[in-house]
Predict the structure.
Amino acid sequence: MTTALSGNKIAKQIEKKFPEAVIESGAESLLLKGESLLEIAGYLKAAPGLDFDYLNAITAVDYYDYFEVVYQLTSLEHNHSLVIKVRCYNRENPTLPSVVSLWRGADFQEREIYDLLGISFEGHPNLRRIVLWEGFEGHPLRKDFL
């Protein structure tokens, strides 16, 4: 079982290197600005003592006012984990940077989120539908999907 790191503790480390990139932090997770996601994810993967070399999961939630994308990271070397979150406030064209360049395991997970919620991932090498067929209209996990 991994030890969950405090979002508050990691936020202090991130803010030293990336001022104003953390929106809020708590005991269980931290919320980042979307435009800083790729830089901070790269830092979390490479920083000594953190070494988040494994991406457990990516998921997304539709809260009507915004979409929240949740990343669960693990360091196999240090046996600790961290949850980071990013929000998209634009329902018409929600976009975040892709983390496939850091963790190959993000490939199908980002495609599934794109397919079912319509969140685009800039820089993804093959962003196309994975669950539904090409030509399907809409994104069925959105709360406004009819």
Q: What stands out?
A: The CA atoms of residues 116 and 139 lie 5 Å apart. The domain at 3-122 is CATH 3.30.460.80 (Beta Polymerase; domain 2). The chain has one domain: 3-122.
